[in-house]
Amino acid sequence: MANLIVYYSRAGENISGGRVTVLEKGNTEIVAEYVKMAVGGDLFEVDTVKPYSTDYYKCIDEAKKELILNARPAIKGYLKSIDKYDTIFVCYPNWWGHMPMCMCTFLEHYDWTGKRIVPICTNEGSGMSNSERQLNAICRGATVVAGLSIIGSECLESEAEIALFAMDNA
Question: What value, to the nearest 5°, has the Cα angle with vertex 150 and ends 149 and 151?
Fold first, then answer.
């Protein structure tokens, strides 16, 4: 069986160390790539049909509205099947204490029975928040392991920590 690394990441304006900075590559994408380098597997990027605002503050307002409405924003695509995967690394930023709602759109599309879900959450200090509970509710029938919280602005220096976590959970 193979590993799947599914992620949502946002480049451009992001909060880093308490201020808005522009990232060429999103923190969560970097984390997902580190997982792939450590344990191998297939990468799948969740991407929304309607992009979030490029302005950081407008983006977080959009994300908050989606959370309040329990929205399921349309995404650009799905994997045909997840049957060949037994371990799925789910990588996402923490938005308002939860995964971005587009991750819910993706995850609710599949039957997770018998799968192992390994969450990795990027954030600027809010940790995993409610995301593990969210994963347990969505991925019924799966085993959701205790996740790894990575400070987004420190993700480039976190390769070894991410690799060890991935190898322990692959």
Answer: 125
d(CA 86, CA 101): 24
Element (H, E) at 83: none
Residue recorded with tokens 């995967």: 85
CB atoms within 10 A of CB 108: 11
pLDDT in tens, 134-156: 999 999 999 999 999 999 999 99
Please tell me the predicted confidence (pLDDT) of residue 128.
94
Q: Which residue has the tokens 């580190």?
A: 34
Report how far residue 4's alpha carbon sits from residue 35's, in angstroms, rounded to the nearest whole number.
Answer: 10
Alpha carbon 64 to chain centroid, angstroms:
17
* Radius of gyration for the chain, computed over Cα atoms and rounded to the nearest angstrom: 15
Alpha helices in the chain (DSSP H): 27-39, 56-69, 101-107, 131-138, 159-169
Count Cα atoms within 13 angstroms, Cβ side, for 133.
4
Residues 96, 108: Cα–Cα separation, whole Å: 20
Neighbour-count burial of 118, counting CB atoms closer than 10 A to its CB (0-12 exposed, 13-18 middle, 19+ buried): buried
Q: What pTM does this model have? A: 0.96
- Determine the 3-state secondary structure of 44 from DSSP: strand
